[in-house]
Amino acid sequence: MIKVLTGTVYEDPAHRENFSHRDSTYREEVRNEGRDWPANAHTMIGIKRLENIRECVHDVIGNNVPGDLVETGVWRGGACILMRGILRAHDVRDRTVWVADSFQGIPDVGEDGYAGDRKMALHRRNSVLAVSEDEVRRNFRNYDLLDEQVRFLPGWFKDTLPTAPIDALAVLRMDGDLYESTWDTLTNLYPKVSVGGYVIVDDYMMCPPCKDAVDEYRTKFDITDELITIDRDGVYWQRTK
């Protein structure tokens, strides 16, 4: 399933606007690291970060860590599709996969926004990054994984996450790129992560504003759990207290 989600089984080329190299040639080593934007595949995070999701979800199931699974910033939905597929494979029926996204792409933070977010100006790439809720639902459906255990939270994180009807989380995966998106996610969802649960940061080493938000939040709330490297960009930690 991981190889299908990343497009490696059919060597899906990179999108013509990909950021890692100047042409759309499929390159296995780039796709494994999630360093391009696939033309057709359902995720851009690569093999290693999908394997990290699989390992974290398997662990919380095996150790009965309470809570649901969520990704904030889902693009075409591939990471959440994997989460739901793992629950199906283990016949887990008491956990929900939450799919949180604006479904409009990256926000323009404006002149008053965080300086690093303004510098990246990722909203200018929304021709690639904006994926509609209908398309993500269709992708779930194509894997026969769209059911009552998948719930959508459409809208900007600052508007949706404070009132999200989530009681507890076993896995929190953040892929919001920006400082503000990452800070909004941590502020509203980290307190719901169960001890023994996981926090995964997709863009920690790729997007400096994301790293800034994570480091500041961890410092502010005295979070000392080890940051573990996944690949060139992603990190995660397991909550211990």
TrEMBL record:
It comes from the Bacteria. Belongs to the methyltransferase TylF/MycF family. PANTHER family: MACROCIN O-METHYLTRANSFERASE. The lineage of its organism: Bacteria, Bacillati, Actinomycetota, Actinomycetes, Streptosporangiales. Pfam families: TylF. Keywords: Antibiotic biosynthesis, Magnesium, Metal-binding, Methyltransferase, S-adenosyl-L-methionine, Transferase. Pathway: Antibiotic biosynthesis. This is Macrocin O-methyltransferase. One of its GO terms (molecular function) is metal ion binding.
